Amino acid sequence: MRIHLPDTEVAERSRQLFQAQSLSSSLRTDRTFLVLMVLQWLGGIAAAVFLSPRAWAGLQSAVHFHVWAAVGLGLLFGGLPVVLMLTHPGRASTRHVIAVGQALMSGLLIHLMGGRVETHFHIFGSLALLAMYRDWRVLLTFSGVVAADHLLRGAFWPESIFGTQAHETWRWLEHVAWVVFEDLFLIVSCVQARRDLRAAAEREAQLELSREAVEARVVQPLVGSVAALRDSVLTLTGSTKDQHEDLARQARALQETQVTAEQIRQTSLAASEQAARVLRSTEEAGDVGAAVEDAIARSVEGLADIRAQVEDLSERIQGLAAYTEKIAGITRTVQDLA
């Protein structure tokens, strides 16, 4: 998916980011110079107390004018920049006041060290620190104050700036030329750093706007889909809960069924045992019935025998009756004959 970003929005956002990053860099550098000003002031006092009297008056060690100069001028040169750093940090005017104060502090330290050539390197170190602002105009302010200091003191008090009483008309120009030489490289570095910072701000602006566009076109619909999916999940969760409850009820019913089945099984076992006992009783009754049946059969057979005997006896009685009648007839006949 290709995202088109309006040039005006990219330019405006990159400008805001560039200003914010520049301000952040300026604030960090302000804090650096805040500490540096205090340390330089204390270092100037220490140099005036321990080094300047010997550099200017042999081995005599006493409270010298340089001590009071280090305390008063150092407080003046560093005090105003410190106040502005605390009250108006990050402003362009504060940076230029810091540059002026740093140039004057370099001149004071050179004076306290008796114009030693080594102390002049403080100027080049200060230029490198001021380049941290990424503002080439601050370098010009510092260099202008240094050039004016070398010109004026080289003309009216060369011992204070060059460590010699001999007046050399163009010597200040040599020192300033070396400062300009360093300025050229530092200015190019500052311009390149600001160009890189601006390019980085533009890339960051494009990334931010692209991210916002992606969020508007992709993420927000996805959020809506996620919300719908969450609702579906909640619904499924509710359904799952209901199913779980149904399963729980079914499990309880199954358990009750199992209990009932167990009771039925126990009842069946009891009925089976009872049936077995009844069967045994029936079998015993069957045995008794068979015996009775045998007895009845034997009784029937006995009765049949008795019947046969009775019938035989009846026939004999009937025969006897016939003989009796015959005897009676004979008797009557005899009587009649008598």
UniProtKB/TrEMBL annotation:
Keywords of the record: Membrane, Transmembrane, Transmembrane helix
Protein name: Chemotaxis protein
Record's signal peptide: none
Membrane-spanning residues: 32-51, 63-84, 96-115
Coiled-coil portions: none
Source superkingdom: Bacteria
Keyword Transmembrane helix tagged: yes
